[in-house]
Design the sequence.
């Protein structure tokens, strides 16, 4: 099939798909007039029955706790997949032996002094904001996933500010692997705690505490920290794998 | 007006698919797939929005206030995680394709040629 035929076929199929989708969405309640009962029930129940003030996080770690377990392991599996796909192949290993000269002071290409200074200023802010998001997940917008991604951006700012190797020094691969695995395992084990103490997997055995306080909403802060650990490790591991492809090792095309 | 967000979602979905089909660069293909996926965010959030409602965070408002649907927001969070994992895996495949074939034009991938 030539390129032109393929594009022509898509024009017909795509137009048909667009019409069907438009017709289908026509049956939805118009924007701004959602009348889902479930959402309203959850909005009333989670703050009163679970003492969480961020309903989205409460849903994530309470009603959908089991889905979040799956989500955790999707991320875990994907990091494993990336590591597997980008592993050092045998013929590459031989080339790697002759370590590229000058790699010790490899700097992020094209980073101006302004970028470096801004990145330096950003590092503490990113870490603080990420930690805030992780620890206040059940109170204000945030949670393990969001906080984990912000925390993972901290070492990336180190990369922008200076050398790739200093980023690897503060976030060595072994540490990231441990963080990734520990976070995933901790979430599963917290669920096991529910099984032991209440008889139901992922059920909340902890006291709910006073709504609005840092330690409230039962096991949600623990879940949030576990997910935060895993997401930070997972994202940094993935990025490190990609950086290793270009910044370390033989320059491509040689 | 009430239909506009869904129409935009359809537009994003179809234009993203067009990008996937017409792309001559695998990195662009992967990015177009994220455009396709972003249409699902619009649909989900559009389904749960209520005019004049607040975000479902009751830290400083009473929980009886008019709030938007939190369930679709959680689904969007899942959606974002899936998109990140898929993008990472696909980009890793692109890196491998470049190593094998020395090109990231989908037409140059030998096993795919007819």
Sequence:
């Amino acid at each position: 099939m030539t390129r032109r035929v393929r594009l022509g076929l898509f024009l017909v199929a795509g137009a048909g798909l667009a019409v069907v989708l438009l017709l289908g969405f026509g049956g939805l309640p118009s924007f701004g007039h959602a009348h889902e009962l479930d959402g309203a029930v959850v909005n009333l129940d989670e703050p009163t029955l679970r003492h969480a003030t961020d309903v989205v996080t409460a849903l994530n770690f309470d009603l959908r706790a089991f889905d979040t377990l799956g989500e955790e392991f999707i991320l875990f599996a994907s990091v494993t997949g990336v590591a597997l796909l980008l592993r050092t192949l045998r013929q590459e290993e031989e080339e790697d032996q002759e370590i590229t000269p000058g790699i010790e002071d490899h700097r992020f290409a094209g980073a101006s002094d302004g970028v470096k200074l801004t990145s330096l200023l950003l590092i503490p802010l990113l870490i603080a904001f990420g930690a805030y998001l992780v620890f206040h997940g059940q109170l204000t917008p945030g949670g393990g996933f969001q906080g984990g991604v912000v925390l993972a951006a901290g070492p990336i700012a180190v990369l922008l500010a200076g050398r790739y190797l200093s980023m690897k020094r503060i976030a060595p691969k072994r540490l990231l692997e441990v963080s990734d695995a520990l976070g995933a395992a901790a979430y599963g084990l917290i669920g096991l705690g529910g099984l032991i103490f209440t008889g139901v997997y992922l059920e909340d055995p902890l006291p709910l505490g006073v709504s609005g306080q840092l330690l409230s909403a039962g096991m949600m802060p623990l879940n949030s920290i576990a997910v935060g650990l895993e997401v930070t490790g997972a994202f940094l591991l993935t990025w490190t794998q990609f950086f290793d492809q270009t910044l370390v090792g033989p320059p491509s095309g040689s | 007006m009430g239909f506009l967000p869904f129409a935009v979602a359809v537009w994003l979905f179809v234009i993203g698919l067009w990008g996937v089909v017409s792309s001559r660069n695998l990195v662009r293909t992967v990015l177009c797939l994220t455009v396709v996926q972003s249409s699902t965010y619009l649909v989900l959030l559009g389904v749960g929005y209520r005019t004049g409602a607040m975000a479902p965070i009751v830290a400083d408002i009473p929980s009886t206030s008019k709030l938007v649907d939190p369930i679709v927001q959680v689904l969007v969070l899942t959606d974002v995680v899936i998109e990140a994992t898929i993008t990472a895996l696909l980009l890793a495949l692109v890196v491998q394709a470049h190593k094998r074939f020395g090109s990231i034009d989908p037409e140059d991938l030998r096993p795919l040629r007819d």
Q: What stands out?
A: Chain B is about 65% helix and 0% strand. Residues 44 and 72 of chain B are 6 Å apart (CA to CA). The helical segments of chain B are 4-22, 26-48, 70-101. Chain B touches chain A through 57 residues (CB under 8 Å).
